[in-house]
Amino acid sequence: MTPNDVIPLHLADVTYPAQHPLAGQTGVVLAFAIRHPAGIVLVDTGVGAGNDWVDESYRPVRRDIRDALTAADLEPEDVRAIVNTHLHFDHCGQNRAFPGVPVVTQRRELDAAREPGHTIGEWVDFPGVAHAPVDGDGEIADGVSVLATPGHTVGHQSVTVRTGDGLVLIVGQAAQDARSFATGEADASVRRLRELNADRIHFSHDRAVLRRR
Ligand SMILES: [Zn+2]
Ligand SMILES: [Zn+2]
User: Is 3 within 8 Å of 163 (Cβ atoms)?
Assistant: First the structure.
């Protein structure tokens, strides 16, 4: 088994509402499982259930994260940490499936999420939640690091993973898709991520995977 493998989990499809820049289009919502010797590190948890505004606005077709892990031959009880790239509803929605598991977010993002309009509050703060906020960059497990990449939200973060197969970068939503990451106009966060020259690059809302040539 390759240490620190990164496995994409397709957790939802959404239809963007009228006021959204991508109105009418459907989009994928991906999370990632990092298979680490110390246990599984989840990066994001998809869309939650039971919120009328989300259901009516985005018409999500959801997949239970525990089922997705099991289907990927991973044991949900092995989840040791959750990293949220940011706290929009489509990234933290199933954190509640893992009470007591540390949730690593940027402190600025957690603060923003407690203001009205940022996200679904009960998907961030729920009984048994174990917030583990960080400030800026840091290694959170051997070979697994978070990088502060503000822009999409004030406290957005991306994740790098040293694997037996090179450096894997999980951009999150610092770029909307692979094309804009590779060729679009880049803000400071995207420039920084490009400079990592990662071997494999994943996105929250694009199934495409960029590979270093
Ligand atoms: Zn977002
Ligand atoms: Zn998103």
Answer: yes
Q: Is the dihedral of CA 17, 87, 173, 163 positive or negative?
A: negative
User: Which ligand is closest in space to the CA of residue 155?
Assistant: 1
Residue 143 has which token pair? 């070979």
Domain ranges of the chain: 5-211
Q: Are 61 and 28 in contact (CB under 8 A)?
A: no
Ligand nearest to C-alpha 28 = 2
Measured CA to CA, the distance from residue 100 to residue 77 in angstroms comes to 12
The pLDDT tens digits for 173-187 are: 999 999 999 998 999
pTM summary value: 0.97
Q: Side-chain half-sphere of 30: how many Cα atoms within 13 Å?
A: 20
CATH match of 5-211 with 3.90.980.10:
no
CA of 148 to the centre of ligand 1 (A): 15
Q: Cβ(40)–Cβ(29) under 8 Å?
A: no
Distance CA 40, CA 194 (A): 26
- Count CA atoms closer than 13 A to 51's CA, side-chain side: 18
- Residues 69-86 have pLDDT tens digits of 999 999 999 999 999 999
Quote the ligand 2 centre to 211 CA distance (angstroms): 22
Torsion of CA 138, 148, 135, 9, to 10 degrees: -70
Cα of 2 vs centre of ligand 1, distance in Å, is 31
